[in-house]
Amino acid sequence: MVRKFESMEQFKYLGTTLTYQNSMQEEIKSRLKLGNACYRSVQNILSSSLLSKNIKIKINRIIIFPVVSSGCETWSVTMREERRLRLFENRVLRSIVESKRDEVTGEYRRLHNEELNDLYSLPIIVRVIKSRRMRCAGHVSRRGEGRGIYRVLVEKLE
Predict the structure, then answer these.
(1) Taking a C-beta distance cutoff of 8 angstroms, is the pair 124, 114 a contact?
(2) Predicted TM-score (pTM) of this structure
(3) What element of type H or E holds 84?
(4) Which residues fall within 8 angstroms of residue 152, CB to CB, at 6 or more apart?
(5) Parallel, antiparallel, or unpaired: how do β-strands 100-101 and 108-109 relate?
(6) Residue 60 gets which letter from DSSP?
(7) Nearest C-alpha neighbor of 111 from the set 127, 128, 96, 126
C-alpha cells in the first residue's frame, strides 16, 4: 500500500521548525541564541563567589539547558552542530568553574575540556540530545502501526 504525503518546505512540530531537507542548522542557531540570552541574564549569578559550584551547575541544568535543548528530540545533529553545542556548554561551564592554578608555573590557566568534563559529572549536552531522540523513537514505536507518526518513522516514504 503506497501512501502519499503532502510535500511542504517547512513546518513547525512540537515547537521545532522542520525543513524539507531535514536541516537543523537554523533551529540549533536560534536555540543557541536563546541559550546565550538566558546565560547573559544569569551570568552575574554564575560568576558570583557566594554560591557553590554545585548550585551554579543546578542553575545551568534548570534554567539554561532546557532553553537550548527544547525540541531536541526531532533534531538530526551533524558533527558541526555537535561541536557548536559543546562549545556553548563548555563556555557556560568555564564560567561556573574557576580557573585552575598550574602546579609548575603557579599561574592560573583555563581548564582543558577533559578536566572540565571530569569536574562536571552530568552527561554532556550531545549525549542528552541523543538519548532523548532514542526515547522519543521508543514512544513512537509503542504507539502502534495504525498511527501516522509510526508510519513516518518506520516506512519508506515515496
Answers:
(1) no
(2) 0.71
(3) helix 79-96
(4) none
(5) antiparallel
(6) I
(7) 96
One-letter identity of residue 45:
I
> How many residues appear in the chain?
158
Extract the C-alpha cell encoding 55.
Answer: 548550585
How far apart are alpha carbons 19 and 12 in whole angstroms? Answer: 9
Query: Digits of tens for pLDDT over the chain (158 positions)?
Result: 677 877 777 777 766 666 777 677 878 888 899 999 999 999 888 888 898 888 988 888 899 999 998 878 777 788 999 999 999 988 888 888 776 666 777 777 777 777 777 777 777 888 888 888 888 888 777 877 777 776 666 666 56
Number of helices (H) and strands (E) in the chain: give both, helices first. 8, 4
